[in-house]
Amino acid sequence: MRRIVRTLLLVAFLALGAAALAYARYLASADYRDGNQLFYREGRPTGAGRAFGHFWSAIADRGLTPAYVVTLETTGHRTGRRFSIPVVLADVSGRTYVVSMLGERPPWVRNVRAAGGRATIRRREAREVLLVEVPPDERAPILKKYLQRASGARPHFPIGPDAPVEEFARIAGDYPVFEVRRAA
Asked: Any bridge partners for residue 129, and if so which?
């Protein structure tokens, strides 16, 4: 019995190692640099992207991620169904923000706007919030801070996290930003 357990552990270890090496090669590829093609196509998640999102949402819900990784839950503006996605929060000048790394295309952006900003943020417990859209001319420092923190978002931006704030001002209109406030 011990031999079987050791063999299974060895196989699992080798499989995880192979998966890690394959993913490391992917991270160095043009497909990743050109918008993370494994997880997103044309601004929408692929099947792998949805599975990965469910995984990150589940561990963020349980508080197993850094405090700035949370689950954002919105209500579908057409279906009324609840949708959950993992997001990275950006903190700037004592305020907290959610950024759409895929620009205007993700359904959660439309859902938040249609719901008048009402949403839920989960991390160990659910918290009703009001997401207030930030005007484009105020987004640049928030986008910079967000990109410094959210490494997974970098392939979706045409500039790097070390670019000057002026460069972020140039693209600010393309990436919706919402300030997270307590729901009234």
From this structure: 119, 182
